[in-house]
Amino acid sequence: MSGHKMMFSGLKLWTKGRSSHAWINPFHNGRNGRGKASFSTRSPKVCIVGSGPAAFYTAQSLLKARQDVEVDLYERLPVPFGLVRFGVAPDHPEVKGNRSMGVPGEDLAGVYSAKDFVGWYNGLPSCRELSPDLSCETAVILGQGNVALDVARVLLSPIDILKKTDITQPALEALAESRVRRVLVVGRRGPMQVACTIK
């Protein structure tokens, strides 16, 4: 797709200050007045809202069909690729929610679900306001799966390493000030029963 413009922008910027009427009749622009489509010899411009696999497939198909088309992709998340990146399909609702563990103290300040913490450093809009307390030297993670190890890795990785990833700037700044130096990963059983995979 070299030579073609691919733009990632927040939907808030796209919709801010615009009335819903701007979406209803794009042909009614005051010049052709009656809602009739006007055609010109200019290159077509296409806006695709979202940047998941279907958006990229659509953009690729448009660019193959017409080399002069200009395609803009708008995305509300800080990075593209939708479900390919964040991986929770609509038909797996059990993965989306936080499950109560029934552990005394799980609702106390300073206790965060791994789902929310991962969403925070990945820039998910629903987790953007999370402000984890990283002022202590020891963090405890309950669980022995891949997400637990991802959280431990992010908490303990040097900032220079994290800067090379697509972690969000607010998370990077918070982790740069982090005093966490030790992470305990706690599971119900022994090391032979860990639920993580080898990378």
TrEMBL record:
NADP listed as a keyword: yes
Q: Which Pfam families match?
A: NAD_binding_8
> Which InterPro entries is this protein grouped with?
FAD/NAD-bd_sf (IPR036188), Ferredox_Rdtase (IPR055275)
**What cofactors does this protein use?**
FAD
Taxonomic lineage is:
Eukaryota, Metazoa, Chordata, Craniata, Vertebrata
Q: Spell out the PANTHER family in the cross-references.
A: GLUTAMATE SYNTHASE 1 [NADH], CHLOROPLASTIC-LIKE (PTHR48467)
Q: In Gene Ontology terms, what is one molecular function of this protein? A: oxidoreductase activity
Could you tell me which species this protein originates from? Etheostoma spectabile
Q: Which UniProt keywords apply?
A: FAD, Flavoprotein, NADP, Oxidoreductase
Q: What is this protein called?
A: FAD/NAD(P)-binding domain-containing protein
Coiled-coil stretches: none
